[in-house]
Amino acid sequence: MTPAKKKTTAKRLAKKPAKKAAKKKATAKRATKKTPKRNTATNNGGPRRKVPSPYLPEILETLAKTYPDAHCELDYTSPFELLIATILSAQCTDVRVNIVTKTLFAKYRGPADYLEVPVEELEEDIRTTGFFRSKTKNIRSACQTILDKHDGEVPETMEELNALGGVGRKTANVVLGNAFGKPAGVVVDTHVRRICNKLALTNQEDPVKIERELNKLVPEEHWTMFPHWVIWHGRRVCKARTPQCDDCTLYAYCPTRA
């Protein structure tokens, strides 16, 4: 290698560490760059986002007037049927659940019936609701506990319901509020989580934390109806992909309106 080539090669090798150092420095600078503060300016002339929204009384009054016939859209005739329907409703529409339970409830009258058939038969009966294997396991577990510890009757407390297979706070609150008229809190489903965030009633994403905050904000006498109002609003007007803001009765109180 000639002296000139050696000199060129040495320069090239010397530049590589410098380039790497510059690249690392630029990456570190981007990483430490402060995230811009969230823009809280009004959206399309709407109110500024303030959590919790100061318009909660108006929101409650408007929802009650807009959806006076709101109710649980799962079909049931007993607390036990509502429990089963709510377990089936996980990751499934109420419409699909009602189609399945129309024949399911005619075949299975009580907890013992779900335990007497082969697992595969129950799985097939609820297959179209999705996640049918885990739902079958949860239903059978819940039924066994109801028979063993509650004389075949659905328990009426949050603690006892939570001890049943596949029953979390949402399912327990659905049963307590709608079947027994004894809600332990606000039911938080995907509609409630999404719309309460849009209306600035909460900033939380975790359902348990959202319930905790809503329980403090919403008067206890509305704990059962409030989620029905919100769910009806979410299904009919404030749809996730195509919100119909022009038809929304909550437009004046929404900081995220289009």
Keywords:
258 residues, mainly alpha, Endonuclease Iii, domain 2, Endonuclease III, domain 1, 12 helices
Care to describe what's here?
This protein is mainly alpha-helical and 258 residues long. It has 2 domains: 56-70 and 187-253, Orthogonal Bundle (Endonuclease Iii, domain 2), CATH 1.10.1670.10; 79-178, Hypothetical protein, domain 2 (Endonuclease III, domain 1, Orthogonal Bundle), CATH 1.10.340.30. It has 12 helices and no strands. The protein has helices at residues 3-32, 56-66, 79-88, 94-107, 111-116, 119-125, 132-149, 158-162, 169-178, 190-198, 207-217, 225-236. Helix 3 runs antiparallel to helix 9, helix 6 packs across helix 7 (132-149) and helix 10 (190-198) crosses helix 12 (225-236). The radius of gyration is 27 Å and the shape is globular. The model is unreliable at 30-42 (pLDDT under 50).
Through-space gap between termini: 70 Å
The CATH homologous superfamily of the largest domain is called Hypothetical protein, domain 2
- The name of the CATH architecture of the largest domain is Orthogonal Bundle
The DSSP helix count reads 12
Order of secondary-structure elements: HHHHHHHHHHHH
Mean pLDDT: 89
Question: What order do the helices and strands come in, and which of them pair?
Answer:
Layout: H1 3-32, H2 56-66, H3 79-88, H4 94-107, H5 111-116, H6 119-125, H7 132-149, H8 158-162, H9 169-178, H10 190-198, H11 207-217, H12 225-236
